[in-house]
Write a structure and sequence with these properties.
There is one protein chain. The protein has about 260 residues and is of the alpha/beta class. It has one domain: Rossmann fold (3-Layer(aba) Sandwich). It has helices at about 10-20, 45-60, 70, 80-90, 100-105, 115-120, 155-165, 175-185; strands spanning about 25-30, 65, 95-100, 120-125, 145, 220-225, 235, 255. It has a 4-stranded mixed sheet, sandwiched between helices. A 4-stranded parallel sheet has the order 3-4-5-8. Helix 2 (about 45-60) links the parallel strand 1 and strand 2. The chain is globular, with a radius of gyration of 17 Å.
Length: about 260
């Protein structure tokens, strides 16, 4: 799942979980963007801070992992580069790219768009009741839409709440709340900026280690939530079990609703 994750919040996590269940994914790989080109007109938190928050937020779910492929790549982050890298890492996996449905509506303006559809199935997640018109020229077998109730939460609202001193408990995982408070992220201008960030290590001792796809040929998806546009991941990749054959999409640009009780 790709995205800026500034910060990551519970809506991202619920969306990743719902897509993983719906498409029977083995793994969801969150991919924080390095330098999101489409957000050059606003200040974005340091990539290491966003990576660390994503690591903290996903640590409790064994199906979730975090990748540094976009954080470590120099230059602007583009989705095509993210998917090419994931394909090289998981040559036997079926990839899904999870992104905000509003960002998906702009996909025809993304770099190397025709190659994108050959690399992954795209899943656009949106909040219930949000009306979205997708371009009729999008390939119907490569795009699905999914309504996720928790997406009423937004990163921009969390940043604004922190800036004015309002609580953000239960909007994002507790570890992220504490990290934001300790590092001074999203404070009004003039206050101390975060320094001395520590990069977490993965389970094998390397930063943000992504578990390799198993020999059975898992299905994997890269995803991003929020209005990130061509971010190179608005947050996660997932892998689905072998032997299940091609994933049947939700239908021609069809909408599916996540069960709020699931």
């Amino acid at each position: 799942m790709g995205g800026t994750f500034d910060p990551v919040h519970n809506g991202h996590l619920v969306a990743a979980s719902e897509v993983a269940a719906l498409f029977d994914l083995d793994e969801v790989v969150f991919v924080p963007s390095g330098q999101p080109w489409q957000k050059a007109d606003r200040e974005v938190s340091p990539a290491e801070a966003r990576y660390l928050m994503t690591f903290l937020a996903t640590a409790g779910n064994p199906r979730f992992t975090v990748s540094r492929i976009d954080v470590d790549r120099s230059g602007p982050t583009y989705t095509i580069d993210t998917l090419r890298d994931l394909r090289r890492q998981r040559s036997d996996a079926t990839l899904f790219f999870i992104t905000g449905a509003d960002a998906l509506a702009q996909i025809l303006s993304w770099r190397d768009v025709q190659e994108l559809f050959g690399l992954a199935h795209f899943v656009g997640v949106t909040r219930p009741g949000y009306q979205l018109e997708l371009d009729a020229s999008l390939p119907v077998d490569a795009v699905s839409l999914l309504e996720v109730p928790a997406l009423a939460i937004s990163s921009s609202d969390i940043r604004a709440r922190v800036s004015r001193g309002a609580p953000i408990w239960y909007l994002t995982p507790d570890g992220v709340v504490r990290f934001i408070a300790k590092s001074g992220l999203y404070q009004p201008r003039g206050q101390a900026a975060p320094t001395g960030l520590v990069v977490p290590t993965g389970p094998a001792g390397s930063p943000g280690l992504v578990r390799p796809a198993g020999p059975a040929g898992p299905r994997a998806g890269a995803a991003g939530t929020g209005s990130g546009g061509d971010t190179g991941g608005s947050g996660a990749g997932g892998a689905a079990p072998a032997g299940t054959g091609p994933i049947r999409p939700a239908g021609p640009l069809s909408r599916r609703r996540a069960d709020p009780g699931s």
